[in-house]
Design a protein that fits this description.
two-stranded antiparallel sheet; alpha/beta; 46% helix; Rossmann fold
């Protein structure tokens, strides 16, 4: 007959086995719960990220009124072109947007273009240069003054101005020219209180750039302003690299090159790149299309401008484009917050209707132009 009293060693084996089974069960249960919690936490985090992203994108155009055509059009457009399952999907490498600068991204009537004010200052006010200015530069400055006083732009002044910019800043290094532009952009605006030239960018338009970049668009400035002046004015304000700021061009040479042709001269270790004094091209009208082909190499799908000088770029964007494309034109119809021109605005609005662009009303589409605290002088 088997004894009912267990051997101590046998009893310990039984207890150990029982504890091992229980521990495995606890571990499995804890692991299952932990994994579930991890999965749930991940789902919550993903959901929160998506919600935050959607909220951020919705807020991006917060300075546009709810009835602004651009706000509804652009948000609808963006949903279509970024959805891989949409017939209107645009690959990231083809999401190209081009913006004019003066009158599209920043003020162009104070009382005139920034680059025209800069040249006028250089030739007539700069104590280090005004006595050295050539007769041609002085004559161009007088034309600019007439333009400022009357609001009418003289025929041919765009080329004469470009030529005078090239000669008046000849011999400066690129860095010196950039510093000169930035020093002038920090001066007060003539027509506004509490704003410098460098702050005179339209905040709703800067929001558009942010919105496009959030949706993986590459943004370019394609301006009629000199390329180096464009960079000096926009750098640090418009959130794009200098390589995406295109403008009119002047010659650049090595500091010790003299009159030697660039095909014959080799840049040396002692050289710096300087302005050469020759005006090359005014980046307006068809020249904007040509330079987009040369420097970008991809047809844009979005274009933003404000004048007839941007019409070629707009038509190029929306014509024979394999992707869904749109063009927008600003109408300077706000005479309270901006130096608007109703006649010019009406003319642009008519051009939009005729050519298939969407008009942007500064007066009706924007809740602000320059932000709080900035007022137009009466």
């Amino acid at each position: 007959m088997e004894s009912t009293k267990k051997n101590p060693a046998t009893l310990w084996k039984i207890v150990s086995a029982t504890l091992a089974v229980a521990l495995v069960g606890v571990c499995c249960t804890w692991g299952f719960t932990a994994n579930n919690n991890k999965t749930n936490l991940s789902s919550v985090n993903t959901s929160a990220t998506e919600t935050t992203s959607q909220t951020k994108k919705a807020d991006t155009l917060s300075l546009w009124t709810e009835n602004a055509p651009l706000k509804s059009e652009l948000t609808t457009y963006m949903k279509a072109v970024t959805d891989k399952n949409s017939a209107d999907f645009i690959p990231v490498e083809n999401r190209i947007a081009v913006f004019d600068m003066d009158g599209t991204l920043c003020c162009e009537t104070d009382p005139g273009y920034f680059d025209h004010k800069l040249l006028y200052h250089r030739v007539t006010e700069d104590p280090d240069y005004k006595d050295k200015a050539s007769e041609e530069e002085k004559a161009t400055a007088e034309e600019i003054k007439t333009y400022f006083d009357t609001g009418k732009y003289p025929e041919g002044l765009d080329v004469r101005h470009g030529t005078a910019v090239a000669t008046a800043f000849k011999g400066m290094t690129v860095d010196e020219f950039d510093a000169y532009v930035k020093a002038y952009r920090d001066t007060p605006m003539n027509s506004y209180t509490n704003m410098t030239n460098g702050q005179a960018f339209y905040k709703p338009m800067l929001q558009v750039i942010d919105y496009l970049q959030e949706n993986e668009f590459t943004v370019y400035i394609v301006s009629g302003t000199d390329r180096l002046i464009t960079r000096g004015l926009a750098e640090g304000v418009v959130n794009i690299p200098l390589s995406q700021m295109i403008g009119s061009d002047e010659s650049l040479v090595a500091s010790h090159q003299g009159d030697e042709d660039g095909l014959e001269y080799t840049f040396s270790k002692d050289d710096k790149v300087t302005t050469g004094g020759e005006f090359l091209i005014k980046n307006l009208k068809m020249n904007k299309v040509s330079i987009i082909e040369q420097e970008i190499g991809v047809q844009p799908v979005l274009c933003f401008g404000n004048s007839s000088g941007d019409a070629a770029m707009a038509n190029y964007t929306i014509s024979n484009n394999p992707y869904k494309s749109m063009a927008y034109m600003l109408c300077c119809d706000d005479t309270e917050r901006e130096n608007g021109n109703i006649e010019k605005a009406d003319k642009m609005r008519a051009s939009c209707e005729e050519n298939g662009y969407t008009a942007i009303s500064m007066k009706n589409d924007w809740t602000t132009i320059y932000g709080d605290g900035v007022t137009k002088n009466k």
